[in-house]
Amino acid sequence: MSLKITNELIERINKHIEAAYPGEGAGFLLGTDGDVNEVLPLDNAREEEARHNRFLLTPEDYLKAEMKAMELGVDLIGVFHSHPDCPNVPSEYDREWAQPYFSYIISRVDQGKTVSHRSWRLLEDRSKYDEEEIEIQ
Asked: What share of the chain is helix, strand, coil (3-state, %, to 5)?
């Protein structure tokens, strides 16, 4: 499976996660069947001293995303977040908090500038992630 997203939405993700640097930036992906139609950048709710390597999206953030998806006639299909100055592969912490069937775009941000994006899907048994191709259109 692949994830399709426009260059405009990638640029919006880049702007948000670069502004969050040196902390992690995060938000939701809204769309249908692997097509991202909208991104919903959100504030990192983690305490200040943990933001450099952790992000937190609250139940209220999830509700906001579900309401926005319903308004647009799409679904909540995933999460994006950044890994400041480290590889954009899922950490054990990421796996513990992830949900199967969601796409997880993890973006590497080095010295405040986005370097690359990779997308991952957690297997249903939660044992590991499979990488999925990102098609930027």
From this structure: 25, 40, 35
pLDDT score at 94: 87
- Six token digits for residue 7: 């260059």
Residue 28 CA to residue 105 CA, distance in Å, equals 10
pLDDT tens track for 17-33: 999 999 999 999 999 99
User: What's at 20, amino acid-wise?
Assistant: A
List pLDDT tens digits, range 74-107. 999 999 999 999 999 998 888 888 989 899 999 9
The pTM score is 0.93
C-alpha pair distances (Å), 47 with each of 22, 69, 90: 14, 27, 21
Contact 131, 120 (CB under 8 A): yes
Q: How far apart are CA 83 and CA 22, in angstroms?
A: 9
**Encoded tokens for 79:** 């999460």
Query: To which CATH superfamily is domain 2-136 assigned?
Result: Cytidine Deaminase, domain 2 (3.40.140.10)
